[in-house]
Amino acid sequence: MGDISKPVRRFDAPEKIMGTARYVDDYFEEEMLFVRIVRSTRPRARIKSIKLPKLPSGYCVVDKNDVPGENRIKMIFDDWPFFAEDVVNFYGEPILAIAGPDREKVYELSNAVKIEYEDIPPIYTIEESEENKRPPIFGENNLFADYFYEKGDPDGAFRDADQIVEEEFRTGFQEHIYLEPQGMIAKYEDGRITVFGSMQCPYYVKNALIKAFGFPEDRIRVVQTTTGGGFGGKEEYPSQIAGIAAFCAYKTGKTVKLVYDRAEDVEFTTKRHPSRIRIKGAIKDKRVVGIEVDIALNAGAYAGLSSVVLQRAMFAATGAYRIDNVRVLGKAFATNIVPLGAFRGFGAPQAIFAIETFMNHVAKKMGEDPVRFKLAHRYKKGDTTATGGLLRSEVRLPEITEKIIEMSEYYEKKKQKEKDGKLYGIGFSMFLHGCGFTGNGEEVLKSIARLKKRKDDKVEILISNVEMGQGPQTTLRKVVAQVLGIPMEDVIYENPDTDKVPDSGPTVASRTAMIVGGLLYRVAKELKEKWKEGEEVVVEKQYRHPEYIKWDQSTFKGDAYPEYSWGANVIEVEVDPLTYEIEVKKAYAVFDLGTPLDKKIIEGQIHGGMLQGIGYATLEVMEFENGRFKQRTITDYIIPTAMDAPLFETDLVVEPYKNGPFGAKCAGELTLVGAAPAVCAAVEDALGINLYEIPIRPEKLLVLMNKEDN
Amino acid sequence: MEGLIPESLDEALEALSERKFIPIAGGTDLMVRYKRWKNLPPSFPSLPLFIGHIAELSGIEKKDDEIVIKAATLLSEIEQSPLVPSILRKAISQMAAPGIRNMGTIGGNIVNSSPAGDTLPPLYVLDAKVVLLSKNERRCLFIYDFITGPGKNQRRDDELLYEVRFKVPKHTHEMYRKVGTRKANALSKLSVAALASSRDGKIDDFRIGFGAVAPTPVRVKSIEEKVKSRHVSELSDDFINEIVNEYGEWIKPIDDQRSTALYRKTVALRLLRAFLLQLKPV
Q1: How far apart are the C-alpha atoms of A369 and A364, rounded to whole Å?
Q2: What is this model's ipTM?
């Protein structure tokens, strides 16, 4: 770990700590209009009539008829409307919006809108969607995506197996709870739409507005405002808000603000997909030699990004293990729930929870220690992945495992059964994460990064990737400064404005440091050669996948990702024998995420990611009942507080990626994916039972333990 | 937003004698309950009467054999006061988070009368009385007579909760358990407060209260009587089972967004059993 890893003061820290950072809701203008969305109060219905209150002057209604271009949010299938047309497909779907100068009045008017519905039988669960007994929501069979891939001879492996183990796993919803709720400000001036707001992907928003307005691209401008967290929640959803705000601005000619109330944000924005994952393993000589993984995602009312989330889940289906005979099936089901979307890990947390827990269960069945069992199956350099991609770099899982076992005193603690009157358990997980966009994503994106050396010898980073707490304001400055040999303070990196920055792709998929950072590294190298003091020099480069990467998107064969990060987690829990409350006491992590671009920022990512994963496994309960979420405030949707955080102990192993800046790989999502299975293994160890579902609620444990007792 | 800020208790009572107000001290429940949309003030059902600043409504003192806590005393002050029995302090220390405890008041928690109000089970087992004042009257009621249902109590519109008072028990055993949704800023799934005293093997005091398991906190004196005056050696498995079953008749929780009825009931009874077992000689 060279100089680059040495922590520096974060560039965004002072303004955030002092409270001077300006988030979208901090901007005000004279004569600004406020917008409130009127939403469906039915999960699935035909809109029969809409009765509007009398609108005072200065107030207006904006709905589907005010969309100048196409009433569809640009994503993959473009099935998601900005405003409902004749049918609503989830509780909370926007039907119209009211804009006006006084918030109080806007609130009153929006509550006075009367909508008559004719209900259509709703579909909520994967099973209901699968049965297809009610009128389908999407296509003829409710499937947004239906995929399949194979490797080796899975049928042969099952035929020759000593034993076949079949299990079914379930994972729940997860809500992002970024600190800053979503919001946008829109203007229409001189024939141009400008939108400012909280977002991860300025060009997603721009492209959505181009389609929605039917404008040429030079008439749309998108500017990111300081963003208080995203976690994937601000990947695709901001387009919905930007559209509505922009339609209001277009209709009124005024600046309009649409910022969600926390309750709206919790209930009506995207969340992590619930899943049902069935795994069937063919066991021969105490090893898993064949596997079939069948992944079903509940995708909600519109396709959104679900097909790609499903792909990442499918490509992570065998975890960190080499299994030569593989069949993976995947389906994304339409239901009458808010569209499910991007969330840190993007399908991988569901798949990794399932495969890790499956491997634990099989190890126990074989009478083997799960750590050794997993090590025996782990990937090695030169192996091919489930999709047949080649692992070109050293896979340092043995070293990672050795470190974490020693650090956590795993085997000594494993003997322990009780601690301070509590049931004690310890659990281990081993996993990988594919870095950057899934499949051919990076090829399609063809990201462009630009550096502009100004006459004053300062250098501007011109990319569309955003700071949302994960640190690029600091790490990317470090990369550029170090290559150029200039002070970090001489590198300027402002919140992106699509009028100024090229499209370097979205801030997602743990791609910013490795892909965009790698591109910037190469741009900086070239700039260094072209450097002329006192003169302006601009260098720009387009991303190209390394030539050795082979991928066939139609068969899912080849290198699903250009590189992988790896990790292991150990979690210690204490379970109260009376109440089954789970206390996560200690969390250990060893990761190979390549060269850390700043050790402190990486440590922050590890603590935050693991805690979010621990919440996913334990506290974060979101139940859907009678067409609505039961937990729809931050009083009821529970994420861990500092008091719930365990003590963390972390270490790194560094296997650099040659195309990453200074050898950096991916970090942000990796830190989340292994926590849930380690928590699950620890609780299983404490209680001596097998578990198949997260979140692991005390309520569920009580029922399971009562069954166990009888 | 409109409201009245009286300068004294008398002025507050005078105002209440004239029209209906919603008294508001720390606002930690009311601001949330009546919130509307972002950046809008809450919409109270009647004019707010701000009482959090009135000096006569704040303070903790020992009067004869009683502890008297004025209604607008901050939760954090009670949490830190050595005069206050530990069972109440423990309960308060697990409420919300320091910021909320620095705003919220004990009177607010009582008048809010939520089945999950965390000061209530300890106040029930302390046999606390509440004193209500109106312009011309002073009433004193046991807390379990004062609270009548979820969010319902005997306060009349012209009254203010003035103080809560109780005798300090001389107990040998104590248990407080809050089972919340997480460790801080959490509402209770259920809570249990229990006190008992055994001297020379004889149980001369036994009180237990349960929160969030019925429309109001649960305390059943008739069952307590059965435990009282027993010798600890009489706490047989059969006897304990009988007591647990009897409480089972009173504990009638619901399924909601925080927990399930089954969990609440089972765990409440498990904690009861654990407390009874504590009284048994080792």
Answers
A1: 7
A2: 0.96
